[in-house]
Amino acid sequence: MFNTSKFRKLIEKARGDRSNSEYARESNVSRTYISQSINKSLEKPPSPEILKNLANVARNNITYKQLMDAAGYLEGITEDNRQNPNNKIEPAISDDPELLEFWDELSQREDLQLLFEQTRDLPKEAIQDVINIIRRIEKDGHKLNN
């Protein structure tokens, strides 16, 4: 559920000492939208894309995950899973040492944390598939960059 009060406080904190116009310019989100967020006049939560833009230039250590949570996108995810998606992923891939080694690298990437949180309801085989797909994408990306 969209928590307008929590969202407003996070946006104010993320804006820091900048004006709404400065925050808007830096985040590529309209000043009006930022003003509406702060004045609690938004009727529906911002899209994940808008939240990502706001988080990318946020001050005071406000994260994308915090904004996603206040917008209601992480509803139903337990605090334990939110803090440590490894609880479900590591056991699912523990029988594949190469995949487990790759997971150790991936688990540190903040840009993939939301994806990992979504694994909470997936069966073991699906988790393995997701990690393998990311590994293939990473390998192909390295080939393209070299």
Protein model, in words:
This is HTH cro/C1-type domain-containing protein. The chain is mostly helical and 146 residues long. The chain folds into two domains: 67 residues, Orthogonal Bundle (434 Repressor (Amino-terminal Domain)); 67 residues. The chain is 64% helix and 0% strand. The protein contains ten helices and no strands.
Which sequence of SSEs, written as H and E, runs from N to C?
A: HHHHHHHHHH
Q: Give the N-to-C terminal Cα separation.
A: 44 Å
Task: Specify Rg, calculated over alpha carbons.
Answer: 18 Å
CATH architecture descriptor of the largest domain: Orthogonal Bundle
- Biggest beta sheet summary: none
How many H/I helical runs? 10
Helix content: 55-70%
Tell me, rounded to a whole number, the average pLDDT. Answer: 82
Can you identify the CATH superfamily of the largest domain? lambda repressor-like DNA-binding domains
CATH topology category name of the largest domain = 434 Repressor (Amino-terminal Domain)
- Domain tally: 2
Protein name: HTH cro/C1-type domain-containing protein
